[in-house]
Design the sequence.
C-alpha cells in the first residue's frame, strides 16, 4: 500500500489492522517491519494519501477497492491440520465487509489462499443485508522480503484474476488501472480467478523446489568431494536452467514457501492426486532434512559433543535484509543444538532479542545469550554458525574472532558466503554447505 500511495498520489489508501499495537508502530518513528527503502516510502506518503488505523468498519464503508491481506497460516487443528490453510481470518474479513459495506466494492484477494477461495468469499459477501453485488478479484503478491520495495516498484509481472463476465472484466480493468500508473501494461497479466490463485502456490512451490534440489546436491558434494557452488555455476550456465536461486544453504525459511507447498499438497490430496501431493511434500521433507543434516555435521565436527560448549549463531532472520524469523532455518538449528545441551550466543543485526527468545522458548536463560555484535557472540565459542547471509558477516575481522575462541576453532558457513580456504589458512576448521 505505501508503494501504491507513492505511485498514485490521487488514490487515498488506508491500512487497517485489528492489532492496535501494530498500527501504533506503523504510526510511530520505529516501523514494525525492517525492509530496505520502506521507511523512506512510508515517510513520504504517511499523512498524505496513506493512513494507518484500527477503524476497520469505517475503512470498509469508505473504500471502493478493498485489498484483503490477512494472514493465512497453516491450520494447526482439525481437518487438514499441518497442511491446509487456516481461512478463518479471510472469512472474518469477508463477514465484516458484508456487514459494514453500504455500497458495491471490488474485493481483492492479496493473501495467498487455496484455489477456489474466491467462491467462499463471494458466497459470504452475497449474503449482505443491502443486496449489494461485489466483484472478487485475485491479485497474488510476488514480492520477496528483503527486496520488497524494489520488487513492488519493478515487478516482473502483476497478476490479476477475475470472473470472465462483463462485471469481472470491468473490475479487473479498474485494478489494472491502479498498477498501470507505474507498471508497463505488458507486465500486467489477467487470467481466470482459479488460474491466478493456483499460480501463486505454483510459483512458490517451484522456487522452493529449486532450493531443495540444489540442497540435495550439496549432500552429494559433501560425500564425494565436489563443490556445490562450482556445480551450481556450471548448470546455471545452461540457459534452460539459468543461474538464479541455485545457492545451496542450510535451508529455506520464511512464512510462505513451506505453508504454500503444504497448501498445494492438501489441494492435491483433496482431489485424489496422491502421488502429485507426495512429490511436492518431498520438497518440505528435504528442507527439514537439510537443517538436521547441518546440525548433525556441526556436532560431528565438534568431536561428537556440544554439551556445555558455547556456539555462536550469526544471523537469526530467515534471510538477509529482513527482521522476519518465521520458519527461519536458524530456529530449527538452534533448537537441535539446545537439545544437545549447547550454550548459544545469538547475534542478528535486525532481529529483536525478545523475538529470538520467543522463537527459542524453553531455552534456559543461562543457555541462551543474545549478543550485541558478532564479536561478543563469538568470544569463547568453540564453533560459529553463519545462518543468515547478512553482508556484514562477510567483512568480519576473523583474525580477531579466532584469537577469542578456544582451539581448535570451527566455522560452519550455512550460507556459503565466506572464503573457506582463507579461513583454513588462518587456522580455522571451516565447513560450508556442499563443501
Ligand atoms: N510476507 C510476505 O512476503 C508475503 C508475500 C506474498 C504473499 N504473502 C501473503 O500475504 C498474507 C499476509 O502475510 P503477512 O506476512 O503480511 O502476514 P502477517 O501475519 O504479518 O499480517 C497479517 C495481519 O492481518 C491482521 N488481521 C488478521 N485478521 C484481521 C481482521 N479480521 N481484520 C483486520 N486485520 C486482521 C493481523 O493482525 C496481522 O497484522 C498471507 O496470506 C501471505 O501468504 C506474504
Sequence:
Amino acid at each position: 500500500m505505501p508503494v501504491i500511495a507513492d505511485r498514485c498520489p490521487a488514490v487515498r489508501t488506508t491500512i487497517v489492522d485489528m492489532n492496535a499495537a501494530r498500527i501504533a508502530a506503523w504510526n510511530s518513528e520505529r516501523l514494525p517491519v525492517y525492509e530496505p527503502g520502506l521507511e523512506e516510502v512510508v515517510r513520504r506518503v504517511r499523512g498524505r494519501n496513506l493512513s494507518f488505523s484500527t477503524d476497520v468498519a469505517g475503512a470498509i464503508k469508505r473504500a471502493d477497492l478493498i485489498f484483503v491481506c490477512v494472514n493465512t497460516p497453516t491450520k494447526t487443528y482439525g481437518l487438514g491440520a499441518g497442511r491446509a490453510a487456516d481461512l478463518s481470518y479471510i472469512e472474518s474479513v469477508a463477514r465484516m465487509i458484508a456487514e459494514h459495506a453500504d455500497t458495491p466494492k471490488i474485493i481483492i484477494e492479496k493473501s495467498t489462499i487455496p484455489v477456489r477461495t474466491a467462491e467462499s468469499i463471494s458466497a459470504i459477501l452475497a449474503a449482505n443485508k443491502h443486496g449489494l453485488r461485489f466483484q472478487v478479484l485475485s491479485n497474488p503478491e510476488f514480492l520477496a522480503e528483503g527486496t520488497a520495495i524494489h520488487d513492488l516498484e519493478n515487478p516482473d509481472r502483476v497478476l490479476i484474476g477475475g470472473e470472465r463476465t462483463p462485471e469481472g472484466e470491468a473490475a479487473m480493468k479498474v485494478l489494472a488501472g491502479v498498477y498501470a500508473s507505474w507498471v508497463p501494461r505488458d507486465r500486467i497479466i489477467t487470467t481466470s480467478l482459479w488460474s491466478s490463485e493456483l499460480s501463486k502456490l505454483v510459483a512458490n512451490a517451484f522456487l522452493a523446489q529449486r532450493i531443495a534440489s540444489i540442497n540435495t546436491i550439496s549432500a552429494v558434494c559433501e560425500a564425494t568431494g565436489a563443490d556445490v557452488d562450482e556445480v551450481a555455476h556450471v548448470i546455471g550456465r545452461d540457459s534452460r536452467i539459468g543461474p538464479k536461486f541455485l545457492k545451496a544453504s542450510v535451508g529455506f525459511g520464511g512464512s510462505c514457501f513451506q505453508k504454500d507447498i503444504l497448501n498445494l499438497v492438501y489441494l492435491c490430496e483433496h482431489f485424489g492426486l496422491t502421488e502429485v501431493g507426495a512429490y511436492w511434500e518431498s520438497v518440505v521433507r528435504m528442507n527439514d532434512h537439510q537443517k538436521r543434516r547441518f546440525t548433525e555435521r556441526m556436532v560431528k565436527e565438534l568431536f561428537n559433543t556440544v554439551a556445555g560448549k558455547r556456539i555462536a549463531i550469526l544471523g537469526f532472520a530467515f534471510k538477509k535484509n529482513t527482521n522476519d524469523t518465521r520458519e527461519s532455518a536458524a530456529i530449527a538449528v538452534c533448537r537441535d543444538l539446545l537439545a544437545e545441551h549447547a550454550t548459544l550466543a545469538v547475534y542478528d543485526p535486525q532481529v529483536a532479542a525478545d523475538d529470538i527468545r520467543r522463537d527459542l522458548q524453553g531455552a534456559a536463560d543461562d543457555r541462551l545469550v543474545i549478543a550485541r555484535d558478532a564479536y561478543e557472540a563469538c568470544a569463547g565459542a568453540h564453533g560459529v554458525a553463519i545462518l543468515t547471509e547478512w553482508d556484514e558477516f562477510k567483512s568480519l575481522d576473523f583474525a580477531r574472532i579466532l584469537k577469542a575462541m578456544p582451539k581448535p576453532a570451527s566455522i560452519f558457513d550455512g550460507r556459503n558466503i565466506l572464503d573457506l580456504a582463507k579461513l583454513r589458512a588462518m587456522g580455522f576448521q571451516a565447513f560450508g554447505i556442499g563443501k
In short: The pocket of nicotinamide-adenine-dinucleotide is lined by residues 17-19, 22, 56, 69-72, 89, 92-93, 111-112, 141, 143, 145, 255-256 (CB under 6 Å). The chain has a mean pLDDT of 97. The radius of gyration is 24 Å.
